[in-house]
TrEMBL record, chain A:
Its main location: mitochondrion. It comes from the Eukaryota. This is 3-methyl-2-oxobutanoate dehydrogenase (2-methylpropanoyl-transferring). It comes from Daucus carota subsp. sativus. Belongs to the BCKDHA family. Heterotetramer of alpha and beta chains. It is found in: Mitochondrion matrix. GO terms for molecular function: branched-chain 2-oxo acid dehydrogenase activity; metal ion binding. Its cofactor is thiamine diphosphate. Keywords: Metal-binding, Mitochondrion, Oxidoreductase, Potassium, Transit peptide. The keyword Metal-binding applies. It catalyses: N(6)-[(R)-lipoyl]-L-lysyl-[protein] + 3-methyl-2-oxobutanoate + H(+) = N(6)-[(R)-S(8)-2-methylpropanoyldihydrolipoyl]-L-lysyl-[protein] + CO2. GO terms for biological process: branched-chain amino acid catabolic process. The lineage of its organism: Eukaryota, Viridiplantae, Streptophyta, Embryophyta, Tracheophyta. InterPro entries: Alpha-ketoacid_DH_E1_comp, DH_E1, THDP-binding.
TrEMBL record, chain B:
GO terms for molecular function: branched-chain 2-oxo acid dehydrogenase activity. Its main location: mitochondrion. Its EC number is 1.2.4.4. Its cofactor is thiamine diphosphate. This is 3-methyl-2-oxobutanoate dehydrogenase (2-methylpropanoyl-transferring). Heterotetramer of alpha and beta chains. Pfam families: Transket_pyr, Transketolase_C.
Length: 477, 372
């Protein structure tokens, strides 16, 4: 600072109303020689007298009077030992202590938890009391999700569907977050959040149809299994690309704000997804545009075979929120009540203030990445079992609601048996339903089929009629 | 016919001619969606026009777009103060900073954000500062925007997205202020690529792009932002997409181009005429989906085809046009299809005059084709 002042009187006079005379108190020897002598002797008394600078100035008018201090009154509140400057971007205080901020905090950011592993409320928690109806509905959906995952996974193993991925260990993340949102909140998923769609009312049959890509699939057989999407459930169609949904959720949230809607968007992604440039773009844009979006990170420790130690060296993802100017919280991803509370609060904040919120749920991917993966190749079966057993969010929440008298083991076995049957039937029915017709190939590339595609369809049909054996018989021509 | 000539004092070989016909498209083909052509709104010679340059024409289109749809937005780097090429002048003042705003410096964020806005039914007009910087957004454009409708079974779409970017040589741009990346995007089913040749074309085409229910990439020839001046109707009008325009009729050879290159081709045609060669010049206007029918009809008439673009020749869009016309007109062709394009090099600074497909390169190719 002093160097600046030394260089230019113009600079000084420009800054004088902002800095008062504080700029010159620290290094009197660098100051303008006119004042030098005075300040060497006066500096201490300046410091001592700064509680009433006005008086001091009046007394020492002769030394200082060629500078007109216009707003010393306003500067009274500033700490006399610190200089500050209004850089573009805001006021910054100076320090003469050269030290680097450590790369990691001494203690990792704490994880918000309400239920302990036995499903007891930890007494000092503050949380939302979920009523019986919602709690039981949540639990039933968590069980359904678990059973769905088991049966669809098996169906892939049997060759009945081509691909599947489970969300074992993340049932609370899926269901509790969905339960805390409103139906109108638009969801931009990654691909491990079918429970959000399930909560919203997507039926088992609708899931099965997409997995089989039949004509009842809303996606019209265009994508691989698990790439669900449903506009009537406000759940944007999944794409395999990781992280691309994040900035999109921000644009959509901005639209909701501009349209004055009582709604937000939520976007989910994993620890791997948080490494993408789209994550960075999304958070930065959300903060600048002040968009009501919830960024929900499922930090489950693995991106296929890549453990988080190979993914980043920050304190998880929650620590990045502040870097973007975004409020953030870390929650126990196996605790349905904690997740429900955090998402509920985040939603209020996002909509009321028109600003983004970041939630990091710590969890463990207890299943393989997908049916194309065998995770025992890169982690121990013991480790997987430990997490699957002791941290199972479904059994934790079950203990909680059973203790409240809202659930029983009869209800449990009934639910599981019925759900298994329902899902098995849905798969069979979906298998028997025919695929979308060949014409669907050319539709929806654009809003209207252009002439080049009409031409290609014509040629394709000629080829099909000449070589019908080359083509699957379950696709109507 | 209205013609203006603007010379360049720098000694570069480029002069700019702008030929506007009365406002009609002169092709008689049906447009690709099967409907017959309708005259554009500016077909009446009496609608008032004003002599303006390209960036002003684009600016007018943006003003009209934002005025006619309250759920439309313009955003990108530096658009708030008017943009580095002045295309967004006055928009923030008139429509407010919530509808016309700067974004952080992040092209993938600009396009991703735009897709989200468009998915909610808004018209999201995103600006990429130079086409040379569009590549970080390529994933969002190719994997997301282009497939948004298709993959969702038409439950969702981002048709309201328009991405505008200045492209092409500017005389001193070098590697990163001169690129013509249209070919990369022409290989992506699901988006449209549109390139205007002049101010009047730009205004009408841009309004069509903004209102078209498909995501569009609109490349603006930056060389012409100031240099091209033309009588442009002051009102709201639209020019059809996927419809090429025959801007000069001829009988000996068909030339196809787009954007700023047409002015160069026009000069070559004029010179060729002095040697008794009658050239037909077609502005493709929309590169995908492109109007094969108009080009085919012309080549069946002339028997010869020459395509010219600034982008490097290998894998450039001329290759697609050439292959398609060989398929359709093989027996009618009197000579191989010629391509006069940029060199297969990064765009060089000092060597720009050597790199570019200049008038004389085109003229030589016209003669070689005619004399084959």
């Amino acid at each position: 600072m002093s160097v600046h002042l030394l260089k230019s009187r113009n600079v000084v006079s420009h800054f004088r109303s902002k800095l008062g005379f504080l700029a010159i108190t620290n290094q009197p020897t660098c100051w303008n020689t006119n004042l030098n002598h005075h300040f060497h002797t006066c500096s201490r008394s300046i410091l001592q007298n700064l509680e009433s600078p006005h008086e001091f100035l009046c007394e020492n008018r002769n030394s200082l009077c060629f500078h007109r201090w216009e707003s010393t009154m306003a500067e009274k509140h500033l700490n006399v030992t610190e200089h500050a400057m209004d850089y573009p971007g805001g006021k910054v205080k100076f320090t003469s202590d050269m030290s680097f901020i450590p790369g990691s905090p001494e203690e990792r950011i704490h994880c918000y938890r309400v239920l302990d592993e036995d499903g007891h409320i930890i007494s000092s928690s503050n949380f939302i009391e979920i009523g019986k109806e919602v709690a039981v509905k949540m639990y039933m959906h968590m069980v359904t999700l678990q059973v769905m995952d088991t049966i669809f996974y098996e169906a892939q193993r049997q060759g009945r569907i081509s691909f599947y991925l489970t969300c074992i260990g993340e049932e609370a993340i899926n269901i509790a977050s969905a339960a805390a949102l409103n139906f109108e909140d638009l969801v931009f998923p990654q691909y491990r959040e079918p429970g959000v769609l399930l909560w919203r009312g997507f039926t088992i049959q609708e899931f099965a149809n997409q997995l089989l890509g039949n004509k009842a699939d809303y996606g019209k057989g265009k994508q691989m299994p698990i790439h669900y999407g449903s506009n009537k459930h406000n759940y944007v169609t999944i794409s395999s690309t990781v992280g691309t949904q994040v900035p999109q959720a921000v644009g959509a949230a901005y639209s909701l704000k501009m349209d004055g809607k009582d709604a937000c968007t939520i976007t989910y992604f994993g620890d791997g997804g948080s490494s993408t440039a789209d994550f960075h773009a999304g958070l930065n844009f959300a903060a600048v545009m002040e968009a009501p979006v919830i960024f929900f990170c499922r930090n489950n420790g693995w991106a296929i075979s890549t453990p988080v130690a190979d993914q980043f060296r920050s304190d998880g993802i929650v620590s990045r929120g502040q870097a973007y100017g975004i409020r953030s919280i870390r929650v126990d991803g196996h605790d349905a009540v904690a997740i429900y509370t955090a998402v509920h609060e985040a939603r209020q904040m996002a909509i009321k203030e028109g600003a983004p919120v970041l939630i990091e749920a710590l969890t463990y991917r207890a299943g393989h990445h997908s049916t194309s993966d065998d995770s025992t190749r890169y982690r121990s079966a013991r480790e997987i079992e430990w997490w699957r057993g002791s941290q199972d969010p479904v059994s934790r929440f079950r203990k909680y609601i059973e203790r409240k008298g809202w659930w029983s083991s009869e209800a449990e076995s009934d639910l599981r048996a019925n759900t298994r049957k329902q899902i098995a039937e849905a798969v069979q029915f979906a298998e028997k339903t025919e695929k979308p017709p060949v014409a669907a190939i050319f539709q929806d590339v654009y809003d209207v089929v252009p002439s080049n595609l009409r031409e290609q369809e014509k040629l394709l049909r000629e080829t099909i009629s000449r070589h019908s054996k080359d083509y699957p018989s379950d696709v109507p021509v | 016919m209205l013609m203006r000539r603007i010379g360049r004092s720098s000694g570069a070989s480029r002069s700019c001619f702008f030929i506007s016909r009365g406002g009609f498209s002169t092709t008689t083909a049906t447009s690709p969606d099967g409907t017959t052509l309708l005259p554009t709104k500016t077909s009446t010679p009496s609608s008032s026009t004003k002599s303006i340059n390209l960036f002003t024409a684009i600016n007018q289109a943006l003003h009209i777009a934002l005025e006619s749809d309250p759920r439309s937005y313009v955003f990108g780097e530096d658009v708030g103060f008017g943009g580095v090429f002045r295309c967004s002048t006055g928009l923030a003042d008139r429509f407010g900073k919530k509808r016309v705003f700067n974004t952080p410096l992040c092209e993938q964020g600009i396009v991703g954000f735009g897709i989200g806005l468009a998915a909610m039914g808004n018209r999201a007009i995103a600006e990429i500062q130079f086409a040379d910087y569009i590549y970080p957004a390529f994933d969002q454009i190719v994997n997301e925007a282009a497939k948004f409708r298709y993959r969702s079974g038409n439950q969702f779409n981002c048709g309201g997205l328009t991405i505008r970017a200045p492209y092409g040589a500017v005389g001193h741009g070098g590697h990163y202020h001169s690129q013509s990346p249209e070919a990369f995007f022409c290989h992506v089913p699901g988006i449209k690529v549109v390139i205007p040749r002049s101010p009047r074309e730009a205004k009408g085409l841009l309004l069509s792009c903004i209102r078209d229910p498909n995501p569009v990439v609109f490349f603006e020839p930056k060389w012409l932002y100031r240099l091209a001046v033309e009588e442009v109707p002051e009102d709201d009008y639209m020019l059809p997409l996927s419809q090429a325009e025959v801007i000069r009729e001829g009988s000996d050879i068909t030339l196809v181009g787009w954007g700023a290159q047409l002015a160069v081709m026009e000069q070559a045609c004029a010179d060729a005429e002095k040697d008794g060669i009658s050239c037909e010049l077609i502005d493709l206007r929309t590169l995908i989906p492109w109007d094969k029918e108009t080009v085919e009809a012309s080549v069946k008439k002339t028997g010869r085809l020459l395509i010219s673009h600034e982008a490097p020749v290998t894998g450039g869009f001329a290759a697609e046009i050439s292959a398609s016309l060989v398929e359709r007109c093989f027996l009618r062709l009197e000579a191989p299809i010629a391509r006069v394009c940029g060199l297969d090099t990064p765009f060089p600074l000092v060597f720009e005059p050597f790199y570019m497909p200049t008038k004389n390169k085109i003229l030589d190719a016209i003669k070689a084709t005619v004399n084959y």
